[in-house]
Write a structure and sequence with these properties.
The complex is a heterodimer. Chain A is mostly helical. In chain B, 80% of the residues lie in helices and 0% in strands. Chains A and B meet through α3, α4, α5, α7 and α8 of A and α2, α3, α6, α7 and α8 of B.
Chain lengths: 230, 224
């Protein structure tokens, strides 16, 4: 328990809360890297997921590809890209983007495919264009599952962004690696607690968004059970 | 390729080390998750809290968890014990939901019929509930196994040897072939263990062979 007291003392030390290597700056770096990676991944994953989900074609191929991609260890990607692109942010960012794509993609296409096919057909029958069907019918209905994918992707990216400090001087992982190297357990543990708190905060926030999105997908609250993103 | 031919003995040794971290973790997590999932299924109110806790636990990043575990459990930082505790926590967090869903997937009428023909509660559990829940539990076990194999590599960062050692060592020494071998072997190990679980599942549930294909890791992972 002594170690916890030391870590708390490390966290309470005002010198760790200011300057270029202070906790607020590191949290800002960590979050900006996470947001950037998820947005870049969404640029790839959302159009692809909408295409697969809307046409209801190619889901099997995409599912097996994303499944295989998940077996790749994130540390492996990070070190490979690190050797390829050199020390710095590019390798970390690329790793995080690659990691976020499968979860986002799975969320989008499985969300679209979970929509009862009769509903988009009915929308077409009353004169909606394809774009209107996607945007005004399928997207709202798929929203909870899509947000589930976003939640999974974000959590994975936030966790792996910690590892990114292995190849770049960036983010909260720095405290962990610096502490490991110098056997500064207080710094290591203090940094870990900050990362864990950040991840849990994001998880709770995104879970709340997901719960709220059911109101958009199902304003009447007719469906009691939530569809899981399978 | 020359790197591999010169170092294959080390690769084999690290693969074994990787297995020795993966298999106990998955086994422990199954033993813990079965009663917890059963409880969550029988008592939905307790189950809700249990599943919410599991979801939160799964959200904790791996490397920070590895550093927190020694403080909470008293294991040495750079030890296989710390790794196994961490890996088991993640795998339990994944499996509890699968086990709960698995018991939930058993048709109530089948259970009632088993009671009607004289099965005791224990016998219903062992000979009706558990076998019928196996396909769903197994799908979860596959996800847990594949994700555990990947997570083991993180241990290299705190100095626990596994195939992850090839990643950190190769990175520090700038040997692409070493890192690539580490990635390829980790993926291969995940696929082999996954295939073994599929085979085990076929042996355990002969009645499902002709019907729908088992749901793969892909389908379940999204939920986390």
């Amino acid at each position: 328990m002594n170690l916890i007291a030391e870590a708390l003392a490390w966290l309470a030390d005002p010198t760790h809360w200011s300057g270029a290597a202070g906790i607020p700056v590191r949290v800002g770096q960590h979050m900006s890297m996470t947001v950037a990676a998820v947005l870049l991944a969404a640029v790839v994953a959302v159009p692809a997921g909408v295409a697969v989900g809307h046409t209801r074609r190619g889901a099997g191929a995409v599912a097996s590809a994303t499944g295989a991609a998940r077996a790749i260890p994130s540390l492996g990607l990070l070190t490979l890209f690190g050797l390829w692109l050199g020390i710095g942010l590019e390798a970390s960012l690329l790793t995080l983007v690659v990691l976020a794509v499968p979860s986002l993609l799975a969320g989008v296409y499985s969300g679209f495919m979970a929509v009862d096919p009769a509903i988009p057909q009915a929308a077409r029958a009353v004169g909606f264009s394809a774009a209107q069907v996607v945007w005004r019918v399928e997207t709202p209905l798929a929203l909870p599952v899509m947000l589930g994918g976003l939640r999974a992707a974000t959590l994975q990216v936030v966790a792996t962004a910690t590892l990114a400090a292995y190849t770049a001087d960036f983010g909260l992982g720095r405290y962990l690696f610096a502490g490991l190297k110098t056997r500064d357990y207080a710094q290591m543990l203090g940094g870990s607690l900050v990362v864990i708190a950040l991840a849990l905060l994001l998880e709770v926030a995104l879970a709340t968004c997901q719960r709220l999105s059911y109101r958009i997908a199902d304003p009447a609250g007719a469906r009691r059970t939530s569809p899981s993103p399978t | 390729m020359t790197w591999f031919t010169n170092n294959w003995e080390q690769v084999i040794e690290l693969t074994l080390g990787h297995l020795l971290l993966t298999v106990p973790s998955v086994a422990i997590s199954l033993l813990v998750a079965l009663p917890l999932g059963r409880l969550a299924h029988r008592r939905p109110r307790v189950g809700g809290a249990l599943l919410a806790t599991a979801t939160l636990l799964y959200a904790v990043p791996a490397l920070p968890l590895l550093i927190v575990i020694p403080v909470v459990f008293g294991t040495p930082l750079r030890s296989p014990e710390t790794m196994i505790v961490a890996l088991s926590i993640y795998a339990v967090a994944l499996l509890v939901r699968s086990v709960t869903d698995g018991f939930g997937s058993v048709d109530r009428q089948v259970r009632d019929a088993a009671v009607a023909i004289g099965h005791s509660p224990l016998s219903v559990l062992w000979r009706v509930d558990l076998p019928l829940a196996t396909p769903v539990i197994l799908a979860g076990l596959r996800v847990a196994t594949v994700s555990t194999v990947g997570l083991v590599t993180i241990g290299a960062l705190i100095g626990v040897p596994s195939l992850g050692t090839l990643l950190t060592d190769g990175f520090q020494r700038g040997i692409v072939a070493e890192v690539a071998t580490g990635v390829a072997m980790t993926v291969a190990l995940a696929l082999v263990l996954d295939a073994l679980l599929i085979l085990a599942g076929r042996a355990l549930t002969p009645w499902t062979r002709s019907s729908s294909p088992a749901r793969g890791p892909v389908a379940l992972e999204v939920r986390r």
